[in-house]
C-alpha cells in the first residue's frame, strides 16, 4: 500500500471540479435549492486559521446538500473597502486599490488550494465599481423613499492630525496616531432611518428560530425598547403663561418620582448651551465634559462630573418642592429628551453622582412597607413596593408606574412613551477607500442626487496619502462638478459610505447579478433567504442588524418580498493557540524560543527564561498565530479540513495543536489504506451492515445539526469497524459508504479513492447514501458470564433472551463447562441482556 499524496491529489481534483463547473449554481434549476454562505472575508493579506475553520464548516454543509440533491449556491467574495487599506497606503506608500487587489489574489489562490466547493463565477469585490455603482443606486432609492436623511452630528475630531477618527481609532480618549485628546465636532452627515424599523426588527427576531439565542438577545438589547413616561418640569421663575414646558425628561421608572433629588441635562442640551453663552464657567465645564470619545462605551466609563446651574424646577406632584438643575456628562443628548431626573436611591449612576455632590438619597422602593426607613447603602434598582411616596405607598413597582402615567396623562403634564435605544445609522465616513456617496451639493439647490445615468460615481485613482485627512477633499478636480439641477458650479460629496453598507446586501448580489441593476428580484428570491449563514459572533449586532434592516428597507420600497435575509445563523468558535511571554511581558513566537540546558524554555535572542502563557485566540499581537500556508503544504487540504472539524464542537473554541493535525493526517491515511482493500465481491456481514446504516444516519444527522465533531466521531467508529471486519461484499459496500460519508470533509481523498475503486464519475456527483431505520436498532447484546462472582466469559446473544434460554446457553459454553468440571451449579442468577452468574 502506498500513502495518500495530497500534493498530487489536491490539485488534480480541484482542476476536475473546475473543468466540470461542479459548483456553479444554476438559477434555472428545477431542484430544491440551498443557499449556504459564510461571512465574506476582508482582504487583509492572507487567509488565517479562523477563515479556514469558518469556510470548512460551510463547505461541508454545501457539499452535503449537493449530494442530497439540492441545487446549491455557495459563493465567495471580498469585503474590500475599509481603513486597513488606507493605513497601508500611508505606511507603505501603496495605493489602497493595488494593496487590496494583491491581497485578494493571494487569498483567492489559498482558498482554491483548500478545495472549497465555491461558485467562483459569482465572485464579487465591494471595491469594484460594478458592485458599488449598484450600491449607489440603492442608496438613491432609499433617499427617494425618505429613508436617507442628513443631520448634524458629532464625530471624533483629532485636533493635531486635523482629521475625523472612527470610534476604534480613539483609544482612552486620545487619537491613535497623534495621541492628542480627541474632541467632539459637529458635522453634517448622512443617516439611514433604521429607527423607523426598530419595532419590526425587534418583532422579526421572534421568527428567527434557527438563530442562536444569544445573538437574538444581543440584538434585542441593542434595539433596547423601553417603556416609560415623558414629562415636563417647569423652571422656578418662569412667568405664568410662558413656555409650558421647560425641561422635558424621560424615565423608565415613573414609580420613583417621589425619590427625585435633582434634574440633570446633557452638556449638549439647549439650556446648557444657552447658559454657556452667558457664563464662562458653564462653557468651561461643557468643554471638559465633552473631552473624550463619542462612543457610548467611552461615555459610560468616563468619570461622572456635574455642574450646578443654580436653576431650579418644580416637582410635578408637589408645587412646593424644588429640585436643582445640574449639567452632567453622563446624560446623552441623543437619547430620550437629553434630560432626566435623578433618583440616587434606585439608580447606580445617580447614586455615584449624589454621593460626589452631596445630594439627598431618598428611599422610595422597599421590599415591604415595613422597610420604608431602611438605610440605602447602595443603589437598589430592583422592583418592590412604593414607600415614602404619598398616594403610591404600598403599590408594586409596576402598579405605581402605571398609576403615575395615568395621573400624568389625566392632568396633562406627561404621557406614556416607548423609546428605543437604537439610533439612526450614520453612514458618512470621511475616508477615501469606500463607496462614494452619490450626491452633489449645490449652493442654490442643496444636496442633489447624482442622475442615475451618471452612476457609478467612480473613485479617482490619482490620490495621495502623504497627509492626514480625506484625499477626496484634496483632489484638485474630482469634486468640482456642475449642479445636475441648475447647472451652477457645485461640489461632489466627498464622504464615502460606511463599509457596513457594502456588507448589507452582498448576499443578494450573489444570488442575482444583472449588469444593469443591483439584482433581479425574482432570481434573487429563488435563493433568498440564505438557508445557513456562518460567521463570527463579533458580528452579532452591527453587521447582522444592518443586513436585516437593509433587507426590510428594500422590502418596504418594493424591491424584495423577503423580510429576513438569514434563515439559519451559526456562530462558530475561534481558533486558539498557546502563548509565550518574556519576563518583561513581550509576547514571543515559538520560533523565538529554544530549550535551555535544564530543559526550560528560553528566549533565543536574550537567553532569558520564557513563561508559558494562556491559550488564547490566535492574533498577531500575541504572536501565537499559525499560518495555514505551510501547514497546507505539509499535510494537504483534507487533513487541515478534518482537524478544523474534529476536536471541538463547532460553536466552541478549537485549540490548534501539532497533535491534532497529526491525528487528522493519520485518519486520512487510514481511509486511504481501507480504500486499497481488494474488492471481495461476496459474503454477508450483518453486524457490519448494521454499523454502515448507523454511520449513514449518524453522520447525516450530525451535519444537518452542524455538529461536525460528532460526524467525525461517528466516522472514526465506522472506519474502525471496517478495519476489523473480514473481506466480504458487505465490507466492500461499507468502504464505498465510508468514502461518501467522508467526502464533504475530505473531498480530495474521497475523489481519489472513489476513482481507485473503479467508481464512475465524481464522488461529488454521487448521491448521499440512505439508511434503513430498521437496521438502526441494536438486536444483539453482550452478556457477561460470571462463576462465583468472577468474570469468566462473555457471549453474544439476541436481545430479550429469556432467563431460561440465557442460563442454558451459558452452561453450554466450553469455557464454563471446563470451569465447572462436571459439577452441577448450586444456583444461577440471570440479569436479562446483561449477566449470568453461576454459583458453583
Ligand atoms: C428616573 C429613574 C429612576 C431612572 C430609577 C432609572 C432608575 P433605559 O432603561 O436605558 O431606557 N435616562 C433618561 N434619559 C437619559 C439620557 N438621555 N442619558 C442618560 N440617561 C438617561 O434608561 C432610561 C433611564 O435612564 C431613565 O429612567 C433615566 O433615569 C435615564 F430608579 O429616570 B430614569
Ligand atoms: Zn443647483
From TrEMBL:
Motif ('KMSKS' region): 617-621
Gene3D superfamilies, per the entry: 2.20.28.290, 3.10.20.590, HUPs (3.40.50.620), Isoleucyl-tRNA Synthetase, Domain 1 (1.10.730.10)
Span of domain Aminoacyl-tRNA synthetase class Ia: 420-578, 616-657
UniProt cross-references to PROSITE patterns, sorted A to Z: AA_TRNA_LIGASE_I
Domain Methionyl/Valyl/Leucyl/Isoleucyl-tRNA synthetase anticodon-binding, chain residue ranges per copy: 690-801
Catalytic reactions on record: tRNA(Leu) + L-leucine + ATP = L-leucyl-tRNA(Leu) + AMP + diphosphate
Pfam families in the cross-refs: Anticodon_1 (PF08264), tRNA-synt_1 (PF00133), tRNA-synt_1_2 (PF13603), tRNA-synt_1g (PF09334)
EC number annotated for this UniProt entry: 6.1.1.4
Residues of the Leucyl-tRNA synthetase editing domain: 220-408
Keywords assigned by UniProt, alphabetized: Aminoacyl-tRNA synthetase, ATP-binding, Cytoplasm, Ligase, Nucleotide-binding, Protein biosynthesis
Boundaries of every Methionyl/Leucyl tRNA synthetase domain copy: 38-170
Any one Gene Ontology molecular-function term assigned to this protein's record: aminoacyl-tRNA deacylase activity
GO cellular component: a single term: cytosol
Subcellular localization(s) per the UniProt record: Cytoplasm
Aminoacyl-tRNA synthetase found in the keyword field: yes
One of the protein's GO biological processes: leucyl-tRNA aminoacylation
PANTHER family, sorted: LEUCINE--TRNA LIGASE, MITOCHONDRIAL (PTHR43740:SF2), LEUCYL-TRNA SYNTHETASE (PTHR43740)
Similarity remark: Belongs to the class-I aminoacyl-tRNA synthetase family.
The name this protein goes by in its record: Leucine--tRNA ligase
Organism: Sphingomonas xanthus
Gene: leuS
Amino acid at each position: 500500500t502506498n500513502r495518500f499524496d495530497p500534493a498530487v491529489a489536491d490539485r488534480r481534483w480541484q482542476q476536475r471540479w473546475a473543468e466540470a463547473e461542479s459548483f456553479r449554481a444554476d438559477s434555472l434549476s428545477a431542484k430544491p435549492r440551498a443557499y449556504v454562505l459564510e461571512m465574506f472575508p476582508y482582504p487583509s493579506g492572507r487567509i488565517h486559521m479562523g477563515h479556514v475553520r469558518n469556510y470548512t464548516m460551510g463547505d461541508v454543509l454545501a457539499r452535503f446538500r449537493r449530494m442530497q440533491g439540492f441545487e446549491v449556491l455557495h459563493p465567495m467574495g471580498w469585503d474590500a473597502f475599509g481603513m486597513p487599506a488606507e493605513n497601508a497606503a500611508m505606511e507603505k506608500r501603496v495605493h489602497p486599490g493595488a494593496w487590496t487587489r494583491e491581497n485578494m489574489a493571494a487569498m483567492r489562490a489559498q482558498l482554491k488550494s483548500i478545495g472549497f466547493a465555491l461558485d467562483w463565477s459569482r465572485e464579487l469585490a465591494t471595491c469594484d465599481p460594478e458592485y458599488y455603482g449598484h450600491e449607489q443606486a440603492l442608496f438613491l432609492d432609499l433617499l427617494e423613499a425618505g429613508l436617507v436623511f442628513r443631520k448634524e452630528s458629532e464625530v471624533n475630531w483629532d485636533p493635531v492630525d486635523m482629521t475625523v477618527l472612527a470610534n476604534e481609532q480613539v483609544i482612552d480618549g486620545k487619537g491613535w496616531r497623534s495621541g492628542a485628546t480627541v474632541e467632539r465636532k459637529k458635522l453634517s452627515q448622512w443617516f439611514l432611518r433604521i429607527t423607523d424599523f426598530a419595532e419590526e426588527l425587534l418583532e422579526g427576531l421572534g421568527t428567527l428560530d434557527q438563530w442562536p439565542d444569544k445573538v437574538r438577545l444581543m440584538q434585542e438589547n441593542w434595539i433596547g425598547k423601553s417603556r416609560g413616561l415623558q414629562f415636563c418640569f417647569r423652571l422656578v421663575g418662569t412667568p405664568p403663561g410662558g413656555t409650558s414646558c421647560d425641561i422635558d425628561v424621560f424615565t423608565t421608572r415613573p414609580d420613583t418620582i417621589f425619590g427625585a433629588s435633582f434634574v440633570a441635562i446633557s452638556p449638549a442640551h439647549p439650556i446648557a448651551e444657552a447658559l454657556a453663552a452667558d457664563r464662562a464657567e458653564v462653557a468651561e465645564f461643557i468643554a471638559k465634559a465633552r473631552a473624550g470619545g463619542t462612543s457610548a462605551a467611552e461615555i459610560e466609563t468616563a468619570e461622572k462630573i456635574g455642574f450646578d446651574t443654580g436653576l431650579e424646577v418644580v416637582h410635578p406632584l408637589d408645587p412646593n418642592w424644588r429640585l436643582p438643575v445640574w449639567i452632567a456628562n453622563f446624560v446623552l443628548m441623543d437619547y430620550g429628551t437629553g434630560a432626566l431626573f435623578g433618583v440616587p436611591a434606585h439608580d447606580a449612576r445617580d447614586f455615584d453622582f449624589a454621593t460626589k455632590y452631596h445630594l439627598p438619597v431618598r428611599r422610595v422602593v422597599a421590599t415591604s412597607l415595613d422597610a420604608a426607613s431602611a438605610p440605602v447603602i447602595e443603589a437598589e434598582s430592583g422592583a418592590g413596593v412604593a414607600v415614602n411616596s404619598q398616594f403610591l405607598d404600598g403599590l408594586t413597582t409596576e402598579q405605581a408606574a402605571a398609576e403615575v402615567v395615568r395621573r400624568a396623562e389625566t392632568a396633562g403634564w406627561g404621557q406614556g412613551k416607548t423609546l428605543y435605544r437604537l439610533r439612526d445609522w450614520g453612514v458618512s465616513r470621511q475616508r477615501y477607500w469606500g463607496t462614494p456617496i452619490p450626491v452633489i451639493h449645490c449652493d442654490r439647490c442643496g444636496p442633489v442626487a447624482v442622475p442615475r445615468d451618471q452612476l457609478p460615481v467612480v473613485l479617482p485613482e490619482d490620490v495621495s496619502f502623504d497627509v492626514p485627512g480625506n484625499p477626496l477633499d484634496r483632489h484638485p478636480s474630482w469634486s468640482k462638478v456642475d449642479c445636475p439641477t441648475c447647472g451652477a458650479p457645485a461640489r461632489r460629496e466627498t464622504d464615502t459610505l460606511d463599509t457596513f453598507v457594502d456588507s448589507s446586501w452582498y448576499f443578494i448580489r450573489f444570488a442575482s447579478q444583472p449588469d444593469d441593476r443591483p439584482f433581479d428580484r425574482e432570481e434573487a428570491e429563488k435563493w433568498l433567504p440564505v438557508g445557513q449563514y456562518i460567521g463570527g459572533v463579533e458580528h452579532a449586532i452591527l453587521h447582522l442588524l444592518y443586513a436585516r434592516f437593509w433587507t426590510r428597507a428594500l422590502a418596504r420600497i418594493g424591491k424584495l418580498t423577503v423580510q429576513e435575509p438569514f434563515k439559519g445563523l451559526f456562530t462558530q468558535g475561534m481558533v486558539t493557540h498557546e502563548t509565550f511571554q518574556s519576563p518583561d511581558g513581550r509576547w514571543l513566537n515559538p520560533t523565538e524560543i529554544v530549550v535551555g540546558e535544564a530543559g526550560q524554555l528560553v528566549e533565543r535572542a536574550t537567553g532569558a527564561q520564557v513563561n508559558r502563557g494562556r491559550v488564547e485566540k490566535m492574533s498577531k499581537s500575541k504572536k501565537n498565530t499559525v499560518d495555514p500556508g505551510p501547514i497546507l503544504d505539509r499535510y494537504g487540504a483534507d487533513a487541515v479540513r478534518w482537524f478544523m472539524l474534529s476536536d471541538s464542537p463547532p460553536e466552541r473554541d478549537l485549540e490548534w495543536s501539532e497533535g491534532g493535525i497529526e491525528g487528522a493526517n493519520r485518519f486520512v491515511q487510514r481511509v486511504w489504506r481501507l480504500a486499497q482493500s481488494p474488492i471481495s465481491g461476496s459474503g454477508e456481514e450483518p453486524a457490519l451492515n448494521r454499523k454502515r446504516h448507523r454511520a449513514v444516519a449518524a453522520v447525516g444527522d450530525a451535519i444537518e445539526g452542524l455538529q461536525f465533531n460528532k460526524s467525525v466521531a461517528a466516522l472514526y467508529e465506522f472506519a474502525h469497524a471496517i478495519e476489523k471486519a473480514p473481506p466480504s461484499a458487505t465490507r466492500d459496500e461499507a468502504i464505498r459508504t465510508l468514502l461518501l460519508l467522508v467526502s464533504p470533509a475530505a473531498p480530495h481523498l474521497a475523489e481519489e479513492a472513489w476513482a481507485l475503486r473503479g467508481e464512475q464519475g465524481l464522488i461529488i456527483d454521487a448521491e448521499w447514501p440512505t439508511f434503513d431505520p430498521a437496521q438502526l436498532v441494536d438486536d444483539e447484546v453482550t452478556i457477561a458470564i460470571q462463576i462465583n462472582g468472577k468474570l469468566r466469559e462473555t457471549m453474544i446473544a439476541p436481545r430479550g433472551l429469556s432467563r431460561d434460554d440465557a442460563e442454558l446457553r451459558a452452561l453450554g459454553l466450553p469455557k464454563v463447562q471446563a470451569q465447572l468440571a462436571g459439577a452441577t451449579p448450586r444456583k444461577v442468577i440471570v440479569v436479562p441482556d446483561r449477566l449470568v452468574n453461576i454459583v458453583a
